[in-house]
Amino acid sequence: xxxxxxxxxxxxxxxxxxxxxxxxxxxxxxxxxxxxxxxxxxxxxxxxxxxxxxxxxxxxxxxxxxxxxxxxxxxxxxxxxxxxxxxxxxxxxxxxxxxxxxxxxxxxxxxxxxxxxxxxxxxxxxxxxxxxxxxxxxxxxxxxxxxxxxxxxxxxxxxxxxxxxxxxxxxxxxxxxxxxxxxxxxxxxxxxxxxxxxxxxxxxxxxxxxxxxxxxxxxxxxxxxxxxxxxxxxxxxxxxxxxxxxxxxxxxxxxxxxxxxxxxxxxxxxxxxxxxxxxxxxxxxxxxxxxxxxxxxx
Length: 298
What we know:
The protein is of the alpha+beta class. Helices cover 43% and strands 15% of the residues. It has 10 helices and 10 strands. The model has no long low-confidence stretch (mean pLDDT 90).
């Protein structure tokens, strides 16, 4: 834990925590997160990990959190306290960290897919409504919320790499359809501000199972509503009740074709990352998702 990057980020951020009091909350694909024992966390971001660029993701998350400062949603979001890049010498270190962020700690415990599946039906329905209410509020902010606009271009840039790694699963027609969908995004007035990574581990709950927070905004973007649902659509025990709640709140039905392509794109990204990192368990899960997805939405 006592890395030069951690020490440098602690000094630069003004944190007063002693190293002995700091605990690592998690190690993700793009970064490590440390609890500073003062209701804040420190996030170190790697330059390279899966598909994409770490500095771009860091900048997108900083821009998004700044844009959200004046926004009120039904659940908590992390407040950005400070952030910066590391110098070239640090970026060349073994861990490959290129930037850091100090954030307000959002209360709650991360979810996961298995936990959702294990919830009693009443709690699962309540969670679905909480999430639907939160995303409906975010999407309803529309053009008044300035969100990063480079993510669609990044997705298209990365699609060629994804296609090359997943060619045994994704044929040219599917890749071309995903590309056409992405190319039409920037000029489509139907796009809304999206979190961009509604993976269940980015959802925080309290001891009663209520949704309390939404974290990790590095993939935030302007997108169609359906693009926000690409992971949820792969949880058949949860997605139908969430979709019913969301459509009831917003009065807008999901576009089935957009949802289908967004879900396939998500599966291919997961598969490509698993193969690039050599994670056989993640690869098996992604292949199973691809098999289940087929020509259907869930």
